[in-house]
Amino acid sequence: MLVIGLISGTSVDGIDAALVDISGTDSDIKVEFLAGETYPYPTKLRQQILAVCAGEALSMAQLAELDDAIAQTFAQAAQHLQINHSSVELIGSHGQTVYHRPPQRRSEGHEGQGSALPALKGFPDILGYSLQLGRGAVIAELTQIPTVSNFRTGDIAAKGHGAPLVPRVDAYLLSHPHESRCVQNIGGIANVAYLPPRSHPDWLEKVRGWDTGPGNSLLDLAVQHFTNGSRTYDANGEWASSGSPCHTLVEKWLSQDYFQLPPPKSTGRELFGWDYLQACLADTTALNLSAADTLATLTELTAASIVHSYQTFLPQQSDRVLLCGGGSRNFYLKRRLQELLAPLPVQTTDEIGLSANFKEAIAFAVLAYWRMLNLPGNLPQATGATQPVLLGEMHLPI
Ligand SMILES: Nc1ncnc2c1ncn2[C@@H]1O[C@H](COP(=O)(O)OP(=O)(O)OP(=O)(O)O)[C@@H](O)[C@H]1O
Ligand SMILES: CC(=O)N[C@H]1[C@@H]2OC[C@@H](O2)[C@@H](O)[C@@H]1O[C@H](C)C(=O)O
C-alpha cells in the first residue's frame, strides 16, 4: 500500500514528505522508501510559526488562519510528491508542533489548576498538552486521500507525554537480532530509541525512548544571533569546528534539571528556545568566548547531553549508535559523538539502509498505516502512557 508521511519538526525548516510502500503488520512489516522531498515553508509562514512557538499571542481568528495555511502547505507537499504515483491510499500527517507541555505532578512543584472539581483519580495534576497545527480534515479534502493526523492526543489522554512516538517504529524497522542499538534523532530537539536485540524474550517491552535534550535548536538560534539572521544553521558544523568548546560551561549546563530528570521525558522549544540561549550567552559572554567557541560549546552540549543520557538512563550500553535527523549532517557534531562514545560505532541510519533525512516522515506513514489497521502506535515505556493506544484521527475525503 502506498502511504505518504508528512512532518515539520521543531526546527520549522520545512515539510519533510516521504512516499513509502508498506506491507505486513508489525513484526513482519516491510517499508520500501520510494521518494522523499523537503518543501521549505514560505518565509512569512515560517516566521509566523516561529513567533507562535516563541509564545506570541494569537486571536482565535489568527489561529484558524495559521492552522489552515499549514494544512494547505502540507497538502501541497503531498500532492507534489504523489505526481507519478496516482495510487497513494493514505497520508499520515504529523503537522507542525507549536506548543508542547509534558504532564506534570504536584510533587514536581506545580500547584495545579485550582479547580473546584475533585481531582480525577490517577490523573497527573497537569495533563500533557501538545498542539500540532495543519488539520487533517483539510489535507484529506484537498488531496482526496484519507489522512490520519493528531497523533499525540491519544497517548496524552492515556497520561503519557505524547512523545516520542517514533520508538515503536524504530523498534520494528531498525532492531537487530543480536545487537542492541541506540537510534539517535538530532532534529531541533534530540531523542533516542534504545532497541535491545530482537532475539531477546520480551524485547519490545525492553525498548526505551526519550528526548535527550537540545539537538540543533540552540545552535540554530545562536547562528541566527551571530549573523543577524542572515544564516539559520551552522552548515556541516564548520563554524563550530573552528572554535573550542568550554567544558566547564558544558558541565554547568548539564547539571541543570532536564538532563537529570529520569525518563519518560519529553521537551521542546518551550524549554530549549531563546530564553535558554540567552542564559547560555550570558555565561559565554562572561568568559569572553568568541562566536566560534560559543558554537563549539553549544554543539558540545548537544553531544555531551546525549552521552550523559546514555550513561545515566540506558538499561544497558548499546552495541551501535545510529544517527538520523538534520544534526546527523553536522560533521563536527557527529565527530564529537564518535569521540565521546568510542569505541562504540556511531553511524547514520543511511549506512544500514534507512534514510536519515526522511526517517521521521517515514515513521508517520507507518503510524498512519497502523492506525488504519487498528494497531497501537505508542510505546508506554517511552511516553509514560498507561497502555498502548491507537494514535491519530482518521479523516476521509468528502
Ligand atoms: N548540512 C548540515 N549541517 C549542519 N546542520 C544541519 C545540516 N542540515 C541540517 N542541519 C540541521 O538540522 C536541522 C533540521 O533537522 P531536522 O529536519 O531533522 O529537524 P526537525 O525534524 O525540524 O526537528 P525535530 O526532530 O526536533 O522535530 C536544521 O535546523 C539544522 O540545524
Ligand atoms: C512535541 C513534538 O513535536 N516532539 C517532537 C520533537 O522532535 C524530536 C523530539 O521532540 C520528539 O519527541 C518529537 O518528535 C518525534 C517525531 C517523535 O515523536 O518521536
From TrEMBL:
Q: Hey, which pathway is this one from?
A: Amino-sugar metabolism; 1,6-anhydro-N-acetylmuramate degradation; Cell wall biogenesis; peptidoglycan recycling
Looking up InterPro entries in the UniProt record yields:
Anhydro_N_Ac-Mur_kinase (IPR005338), ATPase_NBD (IPR043129)
Kindly state which keywords UniProt assigns to this record, in alphabetical order.
Answer: ATP-binding, Carbohydrate metabolism, Kinase, Nucleotide-binding, Transferase
Checking Pfam families in the record gives: AnmK
This molecule's function is given as:
Catalyzes the specific phosphorylation of 1,6-anhydro-N-acetylmuramic acid (anhMurNAc) with the simultaneous cleavage of the 1,6-anhydro ring, generating MurNAc-6-P. Is required for the utilization of anhMurNAc either imported from the medium or derived from its own cell wall murein, and thus plays a role in cell wall recycling.
Family (UniProt): Belongs to the anhydro-N-acetylmuramic acid kinase family.
The species this protein belongs to is Chroogloeocystis siderophila 5.2 s.c.1
Q: Where are the transmembrane segments?
A: none
Q: What is its EC number?
A: 2.7.1.170
The UniProt catalytic activity note for this protein reads: 1,6-anhydro-N-acetyl-beta-muramate + ATP + H2O = N-acetyl-D-muramate 6-phosphate + ADP + H(+)
Instruction: Kindly report, in one word, the top-level EC class recorded for this enzyme.
Output: transferase
Is DNA repair a UniProt keyword of this protein? Answer: no
Query: Any idea what this protein is called?
Result: Anhydro-N-acetylmuramic acid kinase
**Binding site residues for ATP:** 9-16
NCBIfam families in the record: PRK09585.2-2 (NF007143), PRK09585.3-2 (NF007148)
Top-level taxon of origin: Bacteria
**A biological process term (GO) from this entry:** amino sugar metabolic process
Keyword Zinc applies: no
